[in-house]
Amino acid sequence: MASAAALASEENISGSLSAIPKESCLIAVEAEIDKMETKLHPINSFVLPGGNILVSYCHIARTVCRRAERSVLRLNEN
């Protein structure tokens, strides 16, 4: 399955940098996450963003963008 990073890639433009990370980078990040999780207390409840109205708007925008990414990836599969 394609990644959301593929949306930022310009395959047809020469000299364009790819936004898709190499598998070795993903493995390194996953290993770091695993190390951090051994030191952190488990999350037993849902974490809600807070702060002020601007933080709330940013959270909504991020949610809408993620939904759009998933829709585009589903379209790409079809």
What does this structure look like?
- This protein starts with 22 loop residues before the first helix and ends with a helix.
- It has 2 helices and no strands.
- The protein has one domain (19-77).
- By secondary structure, it is mainly alpha-helical.
- The model has no long low-confidence stretch (mean pLDDT 81).
- The longest helix has 25 residues, at 53-77.
- It has helices spanning 23-39, 53-77.
Provide the residue-averaged pLDDT: 81
Task: Write down how many β-strands occur, each being a DSSP E stretch of 2 or more residues.
Answer: 0
Q: How many structural domains? A: 1
Q: Calculate Rg over CA atoms.
A: 17 Å
Instruction: State which percent range the strand residues make up.
Output: under 5%
Q: Fraction of residues in helices? A: 40-55%
From N to C, what is the helix and strand string? HH
State the helix count: 2
Structural category is: mainly alpha
Shape: extended
How many angstroms does the end-to-end distance come to?
A: 11 Å
Model regions low in confidence, pLDDT < 50 over at least 5 residues: none
Task: Describe the largest sheet.
Answer: none
